[in-house]
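Give me the fold.
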Amino acid sequence: MEFLEKISKPILIILSVFFSFVIIGYIYLSSPFGEDKVPTAVTSTYVTYVTNPQTGEELPFMEAQYFSGESGSGKEMIEVRFNVYSGINMTAIYSRGFQMINGSVYYYDTYDSVSFETGNEYQWGEQLLTEINGELYGIALDGTYTAIDAGKVAGNILLGPVWWLFDGFYDIESEFNYTIKDFLNVMKNIIKSNSNGSGQSTLPLVDLETYIHVYEAGTDNKLSNEQLGERGIQYSYFTVDANFSKNGVLWADQSLFGSIAGDSNYNASEVEHDKDYWQAKSQLYLNLNDFNRRDSLTEGTYIYLTSDLINKLNQYKDIDIYIDIDIDISDTSVLGFDDFALLGLNNIKEIEITSSIQKEFILKTNCLNETNIDIEDIKINNITLVDKTGGES
């Protein structure tokens, strides 16, 4: 008996820990965070554009962009903008949108399609009006999910014996509304998973049925998938005009709303982005002195452009960039372009690398990615290029 008592205690402890993990796992998987919430892009159209009745301009119903911040400095930002009709008479267009910076959500709206102001907080389920197949519909963020209700779990624990004598225990699950933060986190994953590197794209189309539903405009009549099908509409699919950048957001003018966290003058970089010379130059020449250096103890010195500078230069599409690397002007032995040295600098027109004596110049991993420059485009003089880029250039 003494032996059984000795082994029974650790067995009970192990079983208690095991069942605790089982209960925690069940609660997690029943929550919105434990389920696969990333919709899949599909190939048939649904909600695409709205037409401004005053100008005839077509605007995307839904725009989104994500600055992941995985390369360089700047904040992580996801934002979504809806361009919708201001009323059921469709006489004007206005926009509403949401932005999330480091987990905090900001709301924006405008009626002039020019300037955005921090807007009133969107109420989950409020209708946004758009036209589909010539008819007006209300689009609402109104998704819900079922999950374990901690209050009901506590109620069962405290009052279980009493309820059992009468009607039994509480049903511990409840229905909850998703939040704007939930929606933005899903959009972030959609944009990144459907992006080919970075840059502008149109996602055709994205299934948002979990979060968004369609109503007859101005009514509480939510249309089922079957009812939508009868009207020639295929479920809750949306075209999204998307932009993805691996850099972090640095300036207010990078935002769809011209504002970061409610600040229209936001500037997290050391670059003065309102300088006239940025706008005036049509050609910009960069040489070795414009590059940062990284010294490898085992190899030597590699050069790269900072992500802040790349981010800045990409804001001005009218600038053509010419890079001239003259190895002879360096006081150290430059071995080549570092990993991600020019990543995402998409307005490079020419790269030329020269030396007075024959040398190798190494192109490291992804140094040319998303630059529109291939290795064979680089002009060389007394240089042998060593390709260690990996991936696509």
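The chain has six helices and 21 strands.
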